Amino acid sequence: MHGNKFRHNLLTALLLGPAAAWLVVFLVLPFIAIAVFSVGERAPEGGYQAAFTLAQYANLPARATAFWNTMMLAPMGALACLLVAYPVAYYLALQAAQRWRLILLALVVIPFWTSLLMRTYAWMYVLGGRGIPALLAYVGFEDIRLINTPGAVLLGIVYGYLPLMILPIYVSLERLDRRLLEASADLGATPLSTFLGVTLKLSLPGVMTGFSLVMILLLGEYLIPTLLGGGKVFFIGNALVDLFLQSRNWPFGSAIAITLVLVSVVVLIAANRISTRVSGARRVDLI
Amino acid sequence: MTAVPDIEFRGVTKRYGAVTAVSGIDLAVPPSAFVALLGPSGCGKTTCLRMIGGFEQPSEGQVFIRGQDMAGTPPYRRPVNMVFQQYALFPHLDVEDNVAYGLRQARPRLSSREIASRAGEALAMVRLAGYGRRKIHELSGGQQQRVALARALVNKPAVLLLDEPLAALDKKLRTDMQIELQNLQREIGITFVLVTHDQEEALSMSDFVCVMNGGRIVQLGQPNEIYDEPVDLFVADFVGKTNLLNGKVAGHSGELVDIALADGTIIAARKRTALQKGETVSVSLRPESLSLGAPGSGRFKGIVRNRIFLGSTAEYAIEVQGIGTLLARADHLIGHGNLFKPGEPVAIGFAAGTPLAFPDPKNNGTNQRVTKHVEIIS
């Protein structure tokens, strides 16, 4: 028995080992390094110099614009994603014929097979001078600028992260007991009240999962603002790249990164609380 | 009947693609009645209930509720409420909010005080006062059943629809709920329409039983009529336990018909339809109409193969040479010593006229539908 237990533990350790090692080397250690950097000082020639000071955190307001832009973009982007994704997920889960459902779901996922970088580059050309603006000029709308605008960034975000929003909402709607909808109608609820009182509330775990997933990815977003925002729309991600690679102010960059992580954790916890409170103990765990 | 029926079906047919689930139903349910739709799964009973609730639309014919044609009326505008199979309670609401759900839909809006007091009344009616703030998943099956009842009754519907409401409960609780439902129906005096596949449930609770098979109504009557005077072999076999003996019509003697059984015995049976001499028939003999006695008396001689002691009665499986195994039920009288043991020879008797002869569907082809029904929706 004793040997059995030992073998069992050994097997568990072997199975978990690679993942644990990976996480330690590429997540835990870098995170500790960043935390240490964030209370340090910038060396005169750039980089890090050991110290213990909260000066970097005190200096955060210097990047207030980047924070502000990110804090606006992330929830707005996630909200825009949600508004587009919910009707799609609703249709897939409750309206689409069974035989089409799998095909339609595959269509949602297929864009993931191409890298986001490639797809965002494609949007650069679609929105750029020779893309849609050229077409619009052809029908008489001259001088319409699409690329390098906040709208282009929002479009890129919705396009890039839509599947991450659709799938968890789809899952929670698919699980929804249809008889609850009949019970609601039977008790006198119009289709709209049934949607608001039953469908929406019971799909909230999926909504919150999708929302926090997209929002957290957006908090660290770098690619889409750079390619479609053209540097005019400046985000924390861009600030980090700038601080670490150009001005080589590692401690300040680290302080910003740590703050970003803390904000993400707060967002996650809040989303989780809201969804468990409104819809009971059920939740959709994808992250 | 002078009063407007609470529920009326006129020539209602429901088809799903090529499959006909309900075919040409005519039915009128008088006010304040407790009606059971009884039949095997796929017989169309649930489809009928769902057409009353408005979840299905008839392909042909009309459904009336209190004289109003319901064509095109959505479920939320019908004066009926349903207790769903497995209850379909809202998991995100507590007991009181589940019960108050229907009240909150009322327009013009009810005051929150009225909602609270009516929800409280409904909960008290199903003996759940004080459970208002419980979560649904904290309740037992029986309590969930009561919440579903309170939720359906709180809107004071003209008709309460019950879709296999007791199927998920254990036997003891089921019996209690049967009595409670009956009392409740008498108390509030509205029509209850119950869908069940359990003949005992249908017979014990309802004023009228509507036996369905293959999408049609086979027989409509009071429980004792259905049990004592089944119109065909299907009803005789489906409602209650019975012995079915094969035989041929040997002749007629007045109202009764003489049947020659497989072993040559001739018994006198009642009939429901005209039978030709020589026609193959099935004879139904209820277990309780058989009487057991010491060998030498009676109509059949047999040997007890099995005894199931049920407390007040005992059921015997008795092997009769040339006929097969007969099921007999005998009252158990304490101290009477009237129990027979397996292996013991017994004589079986029955009063003349208790057997009922039906044309055998296997040989006549007239009643094919009785045994061949398509499994569609339950």
From TrEMBL, chain A:
Pfam families in alphabetical order: BPD_transp_1
Lineage: Bacteria, Pseudomonadati, Pseudomonadota, Alphaproteobacteria, Hyphomicrobiales
Membrane topology: Multi-pass membrane protein
Family of this protein: Belongs to the binding-protein-dependent transport system permease family. CysTW subfamily.
The protein's name: Spermidine/putrescine transport system permease protein
Keyword entries, A-Z: Cell membrane, Membrane, Transmembrane, Transmembrane helix, Transport
Coiled coil: none
UniProt-listed CDD domains: TM_PBP2
Matches recorded under PROSITE patterns: ABC_TM1
Record-annotated ABC transmembrane type-1 domain positions: 67-271
Membrane-crossing residue ranges in chain numbering: 12-37, 72-93, 100-116, 153-173, 193-219, 251-271
GO biological process, one term: transmembrane transport
Record localization: Cell membrane
Any GO CC annotation of this UniProt entry: plasma membrane
UniProtKB/TrEMBL annotation, chain B:
Tagged with keyword Transport: yes
Catalytic function, reaction form: ATP + H2O + polyamine-[polyamine-binding protein]Side 1 = ADP + phosphate + polyamineSide 2 + [polyamine-binding protein]Side 1
This protein's GO CC annotations: ATP-binding cassette (ABC) transporter complex
Keywords: ATP-binding, Cell membrane, Membrane, Nucleotide-binding, Translocase, Transport
Alphabetical list of Pfam families matching this protein: ABC_tran, TOBE_2
Single GO BP term: putrescine transport
Record SMART domains: AAA
Signal peptide: none
Domain of life, source organism: Bacteria
EC number: 7.6.2.11
Family: Belongs to the ABC transporter superfamily. Spermidine/putrescine importer (TC 3.A.1.11.1) family.
NCBIfam families, sorted: potA (TIGR01187)
Subunit structure and binding partners: The complex is composed of two ATP-binding proteins (PotA), two transmembrane proteins (PotB and PotC) and a solute-binding protein (PotD).
Function: Part of the ABC transporter complex PotABCD involved in spermidine/putrescine import. Responsible for energy coupling to the transport system.
The protein's name: Spermidine/putrescine import ATP-binding protein PotA
Source species of the chain: Mesorhizobium sangaii
Organism classification: Bacteria, Pseudomonadati, Pseudomonadota, Alphaproteobacteria, Hyphomicrobiales
